[in-house]
Amino acid sequence: MNQKSPPPNPEAPVFNGHRGEFHSVIFNYVKDDLAIPIHLGCRINKYFETEGEAGIIFENGDKIAGDVVIGADGVRSKARELVLGFVDAPKSSGYAVYRAWFSNKDMIADPETKRFCENGDTFNGWIGPDVHFLFSTIKNGSDCCWVLTHVDEADIDESWSFPGKLADVYKVFDGWDPLCKRIVSKTPEDKLVDWKLVYRDPLPRWVSDGGRTVLLGDSAHPFLPTSAQGATQAMEDGVTIAICLREAGKGNIPAATRSFQDIRYERVGKVQKTGETTRDMWHKADWDAVKANPESIQMPREDWIHSHDAEVHAEAVIAKTIAKVSSQHSPERSDSFSTHPTEEVEQPLPHAVSVA
Predict the structure, then answer these.
(1) DSSP character string of 67-117
(2) Would you say 151 and 130 are in contact if contact means Cβ atoms under 8 Å apart?
(3) How many Cβ atoms are within 10 Å of 35's Cβ, its own excluded?
(4) What is the DSSP letter of 36?
(5) Mean pLDDT in the chain?
(6) d(Cα 215, Cα 205) in Å, to the nearest integer?
(7) What keywords are assigned to this protein (predicted)?
(8) Distance between CA 51 and CA 28 in Å, rounded?
(9) Cβ–Cβ under 8 Å, residues 245 and 352
(10) Contact 274, 305 (CB under 8 A)
(11) Which of 13, 56, 109, 205 is the residue whose CA sits 20 to 30 A from 102?
């Protein structure tokens, strides 16, 4: 079964590449163009919050505070403990992925596999009972990457990412198309990762009681890879919280963070569910039905997800949302600052501490 790529959108061009390269683009823009300080290698011991500020305490005892703390600190988020008031441990999803990214050198040298690297960017998938294997060539065929999702009940109390072993991957492929093993055999073993998929029940909230600490990305809503939306939704979060902070201003941080949650919460929950439905569509497929209708297991590409413009949406609803959340939390509002969204009063921008 072949699934056509969606027609190109000139206003939203598609570029395929490594996530690390994308991280580098953003990192260098923030560091060099915006001149925002970035501190690496800082291990956080605790988050704190008072009526007037929020902050973090490092393992060495140093402390930093700001108007707001954005906890983008992943599935094992410590910011989540402050927001929820308890430790919310991740759970095994019952699945894991082997994943790898490597150059096409050995693929090109093999007549059986070189065709994948000679036709630009390609995307191929193999699906079976409780297993799926996705293989792609990227950057005009120069790089290769694959993910193999399979059943796994390993303990994830201490870690969920380990060096992978090709021999273990081959066991999953027992009885499969030999081409899958042939592709995987080109993978340098030091490029292979065994990644346990964890999940959390949807959080009741992403914002602390005081409204000065907010969760973003995986700390608020981890995604399964079958949603193909984890990074995208984190970026939508980032655009939205920026607009909320700008519009609410330094004097009304709680209205900004609560508006962010109000704007994003329902959409994110719906997108999260697509990871489960796609995984189950592939892993629990009725193969007789699939034989009759191969299109039934196509990768979903829903317009309500892919055509959404988070910036345009946030700009359209932010004034109304700030007014709504401010009225809901009126006892906590500062008497010296009006939250009316139509007033032409320029508020100073807040000092935000972002943790990733």
Answers:
(1) SEEEE---TT-SHHHHHHSS----EEEEEEEEEEEEESHHHHHSTTTGGGG
(2) yes
(3) 7
(4) -
(5) 88
(6) 9
(7) FAD, Flavoprotein, Monooxygenase, Oxidoreductase
(8) 34
(9) yes
(10) yes
(11) 13
Among 257, 229, 248, smallest CA distance to 71 is for 257
φ/ψ (deg, to 5) at 187: -80, 120
Q: Which amino acid would we find at residue 254?
A: P
Q: Supply 292's token pair.
A: 């009759």
Below-50 pLDDT ranges, the chain = 158, 332-345
Looking at residue 103, its pLDDT comes to 95
Token reading at 180: 């899958």
Q: CA-to-CA distance for 238 and 182, rounded, in angstroms? A: 40
Size (the chain), residues: 356
Strands of 129-233, DSSP E? 131-138, 143-151, 161-163, 192-199, 213-215
Rounded CA separation 212/251 (Å): 11
Cα–Cα distance for residue pair 18/138, rounded to 1 Å: 8
Q: How far out from the chain centre does Cα 205 lie?
A: 18
CA distance 313 to 298: 29
Query: In the prediction, which pLDDT does 68 show?
Result: 97
Model pTM score:
0.86
- What single-letter DSSP state applies at residue 250? G
- Token pair for 203: 């959080």
Closest CA to 313 of 274, 268, 255: 268
Going by C-alpha positions, the residue among 227, 239, 158 that lies closest to residue 196 is 158
Vertex 163: Cα angle to 228 and 282 (nearest 5): 35
Q: What is the pLDDT of residue 71?
A: 96
CA atoms within 13 A on the CB side of 91: 7
Looking only at Cα atoms, what is the longest distance across the chain?
Answer: 74
Give the burial class of 275: count Cβ atoms within 10 A of its Cβ; 0-12 exposed, 13-18 middle, 19 or more buried.
Answer: buried
- Name which of 112, 122, 168 is nearest 143 in CA terms: 122
Query: Do residues 214 and 207 make contact, with C-beta atoms less than 8 angstroms apart?
Result: yes
Q: Which tokens sit at 315?
A: 């700009």
**Cα–Cα distance measured from residue 79 to residue 247, given in angstroms and rounded to the nearest whole number:** 24
pLDDT of residue 156: 62
